Each structure stands twice: as structure tokens, then as C-alpha cells.
Amino acid sequence: MTTQDSSGAAAIPQPEVVDADEAGRRRVDAQWALMPEGWRRLDRRIIVWTQWLLCVVGVAFAAMITLEVVSRYVFSFSIYFVNAAARLLLVWFFTLGAGIAMRHGAHVGFELLLSALPWRARRAVVLAGLGCTAVFCVEMIYAGIVAAGPAWSQSEPGLGISLLWPMLAIPVGFALLLYHTAVIIWIVTHAPEADRP
Known about the structure:
There is one protein chain. With 197 residues, the protein is mainly α. Helix 3 runs parallel beside helix 7 (169-190) and helix 5 (119-152) packs antiparallel against helix 7 (169-190). It has helices at 20-33, 37-73, 82-104, 111-115, 119-152, 164-167, 169-190; strands at 3-4, 10-11, 155-156, 161-162. The protein is globular, with a radius of gyration of 22 Å. Strand 3 (155-156) and strand 4 form a beta hairpin. The protein has one domain (20-195). The two termini are 25 Å apart.
């Protein structure tokens, strides 16, 4: 709705300002509205559990880094396992979070260019990009599984655990990303024309 300024001329309406988290939730809710009921329930569980896991990993990472900074600069000593544990958590955080970021529309994209295309061309470009993402995910899952074999017999010196644990983040995270990519592909191909990208 337009309003008038003091000179009587029509003022330009202000766009709705939505923070990124709210925009992401709206996007996922719109995706769920287009999914069959059974798949929606499963997808909701996958997203909720992944977000809780990301929250726990993120809080643990922040606590470890804070502990390390305080111990180093206040008490002048370093806790030997914190750097290794923080790296491990960071790998898991980013690989698990990539799929959630995709569903929220938080990855870098070319929205301005896509919005200038007619919907058929836009859909073709989006599906081509998602197809490339799926191929990359399959390659990373395969590479992660192959690398897990040698990692099993090696250990992380700072933690004394097998390198398999950080290496598992690759196939697990990219399997989740592949799942989320498949969800977006399904939505793009099955959404009504008005809701298509």
C-alpha cells in the first residue's frame, strides 16, 4: 500500500524487512507445503535433528575456543586437546550445516540474473545447477568412503582418537547435502507454475 508524503506525492512503499533466520524458516515451510505428508514428516525430523546437532556442535566449539583463549591469555598455558577438538567440531559443523543452508537459501546464488529469466529458462538453469551439485555430492561421498579406510588406522595426536571420526564428516555431510539437493530438485519439478523458481 502506498502512502503520501508531505507534498502530496505518492511515496514508495517500504519493502518488508525479514531477518535471514525468519526468511530461511519461511522458505522451508513453503517447501513442506509442497511435499507429500509422509515425506514432510520425515523431512521435518531430519531438519530438526540436524539443527539440534548443529546447535550442540556450535556451542561446544565456541566454548572450547573461549576456554583456550582464556587459558592462554589469562593463565598463560594452553590446553593440549582443545585445538584438535575444535578442528574436529568445525569440520562436522560445516559439513552438516551445508544441507540446512541449502534448504534455507543461504548459499551464494545469482538471484538477480535468475529473476530476469522466464520461468522455463530459470527452471532449466536451477535444475542444471542442482544436477551439478548432486554429481559433486556423489563424488565427495565416494571420496570420503575411500579415504575412511586409511584414516581408520591413523590417530589424531591431540585427541588420541582415530582419524576416522573427522573423515566421516565428509560422506555423512555430503549424503545429507545430496538428500537436501534431491528435495529441492523434487520441489522445483513438482511445484505449481506460480511457485516455481
